[in-house]
Amino acid sequence: MPSKQRAKNSPTSANLHPKTAARRVALKILVALETSDIVFPQALNTFMPACPLETRPLARELASGVLRHRARMDWTLAPLVKKPLEKLDAPVRAALRLATYERTILKTFASVVGNEYAGLMKTERLLSATGFVNAIARRLPDEPRQSPEAQSDPVGHLQREYSHPRWLVERWLARFGFEECAALLQSNNCVAPLALRVNTLRASREEILDSFLSRGVQAVKGVLSPDAILVEHAGDPTLWPEWSEGKIYIQDEAAQLVALFADPQPGQIILDCAAAPGGKSTHLAQLMKGEGKIIACDVSEGRLKLVRENATRLGIEIIAERAGDFRALAPSLPKADLVLLDAPCLGTGTLRRRPDAKWNKTPQQLNELVALQRELLEAAEKLVKPGGVLVYSTCSLESEENENQIAWWLERHPAWQVETRSTLPHRDGCDGMFAARMQKIHHS
Fold first, then answer.
1. The one catalytic residue among 181, 273, 297, 395
2. pTM for this model (two decimals)
3. Residue 49: phi, psi to the nearest 5?
4. Long-range pairs for 88-92 at CB < 8 Å and ≥24 separation?
5. How do residues 245-255 score in pLDDT, each as one tens digit?
6. Any bridge partners for residue 196, and if so which?
7. How many separate helices (H) and strands (E) can be counted in the chain?
8. Does one domain contain both 203 and 281?
9. For 142-179, b where at least 16 C-beta lie within 10 A, e where not — what string?
């Protein structure tokens, strides 16, 4: 492609057509995700204010749609683009992916797709790319390119059909088999329902459900957690009265199961080793009926502020925060009845909520996390009172972080009694979660 040319007096979002503004915001989100450390929720908060209210759903649909189906979009583009997509400027690559999504999934007319995304190259001051983007966009098929045959190339088929990194497809295919792997990949591409946890210190689930239904919010009881409500097409729950009154918290059912599985009791001393933003700490507190003490630790002082804010809003007063690496903090912490290690993990159980995340994960990260988890487990074990409980949990689907980690643990600590619980998105309709509840029988 020719060298970049700078356009003068490029249109701003303020004077763009609302749908064009939505496309520009979607493009900026995709570029930011590729060129910075920002994550999808932050990108939405950063760029969405530039989009008119009436087309914000379109901007989100476009950005999240490309992230969910990126490999399929790239597979469709490949025969039309002479050079690898990775060699293009990030805004050009994003524009072509968005154009492909609109043309093949949303069925937008080729002429509209061509004009719109070529025009966005002008707003991005990439004049030299306008003709290139326009030409490719107008040649796009109206259906995604057919994936490789499943029989002859099962990995290639699953990778393109369901848009996941090849290395994840390979490991899940080996573990689950073709049909279940396909179901998992498809589940990851679905938009997860909004899951809320009722703060039972201030309201009952029935009370909140009645309140929602009385004003037309589509809501049903969760199946896995007695505190859960699932909501669809609801808007922003942080604007609802139940939120400001501290009666609800946004938390997937799988995450709610961890505190329930831990089974905390009123009056206990509890350590939460990696607590931010406070979902599990505050759930533990409500299960303790607000009686006892929770020490919420996190490496980030800034994220601990979220724990404090959430606890304050929910009316919880038994949480104290400690900032620092838990491995360094551990010697200064008291022994506890229950230690919760919700460990840093690869997060492959939450891909339906984080469509950008699957493209950023690597086998190297997995190896590094396994080593970190072991160090954290060893530090946590020393803080469990005799007869106390250690709960280890992840939002990962990877055996190395879950079952294999517990097998490693039991080799080193055979005198512990272990019970495990797990969920899978395609089987349980919630995020993927693993938890092990380990009872300390005696000093080991």
1. 395
2. 0.91
3. -60, -20
4. 88/1, 89/1, 89/4, 89/126, 89/129, 90/30, 90/31, 90/34, 90/35, 91/27, 91/31, 91/120, 91/121, 91/124, 91/126, 91/129, 92/1, 92/121, 92/126, 92/129, 92/132, 92/133
5. 999 999 999 99
6. 229, 250
7. 19, 11
8. no
9. eebbebbeeeeebbbbbbbbbbbbeebbbbbbeebeee
Q: Look over the chain and give the mean of its residue pLDDT values, rounded to a whole number.
A: 93
Structure token pair of residue 179? 């049909």
Give the type of residue at 56.
R
Verify that 90 and 207 share a domain, yes or no.
no
Claim to verify: residue 110 and residue 243 sit in the same structural domain: no
Give the CATH number of the domain where residue 91 resides: 1.10.940.10
Alpha-carbon distance of 131 to 128, in angstroms, equals 7
Q: Is residue 3 over pLDDT 90?
A: no
User: pLDDT tens digits, residue range 193-243?
Assistant: 899 999 999 999 999 999 999 999 999 999 999 999 999 877 789 999 999
Q: Per mean pLDDT, which range of 131-135, 231-235, 330-334, 382-386 is the poorest?
A: 231-235
Compute CA distances 378 → 392, 398, 438, whole Å: 11, 20, 13
pLDDT confidence bin for 14, thresholds 50/70/90: low
Residue 86: HSE in the Cβ half-sphere, 13 Å Cα cutoff: 1
Two tokens at 219?
């809501």
430 is catalytic: no
**Can you read off the two tokens belonging to residue 443?**
């000093």
For the cut 80, the answer to whether the pLDDT of residue 1 exceeds it is no
